[in-house]
Specification:
This protein has 84 residues and is mostly helical. It has four helices and no strands. 26% of the residues lie in helices and 0% in strands. The chain starts with 18 loop residues before the first helix and ends in an 11-residue tail after the last helix.
Length: 84
């Protein structure tokens, strides 16, 4: 049975499951995965939040819309995330 949609909060930004797989597996399978791998819990939505762990030189508005991967890629001296 194909669902044709993902049940992840943010299928591209908060899931390591390939989008084609997300669209084909039953909803129960998606929801059984840990939210850290495939977030299906809107209460744990990490979009529009900053992941900085200290003072950042990046404006807060940009921090909130930037993908977490971009925040993590910035040098710690610019935007600390403790993800080196």
């Amino acid at each position: 049975m194909s669902t044709q949609q993902s049940h992840a909060v943010d299928p591209q930004g908060q899931s390591v499951v390939p989008q084609a797989v997300q669209q084909k597996v039953p909803e129960g399978v998606e929801r059984s995965l840990p939210d850290s791998l495939h977030n299906t819990d809107p209460a744990k939505d990490e979009s529009n939040v900053s992941h900085a762990t200290g003072p950042s030189k990046v404006p807060e508005g940009i921090q909130k819309i930037a993908p977490q991967a971009l925040e993590n890629a910035l040098p710690e001296s610019i935007h600390p995330t403790n993800c080196e």
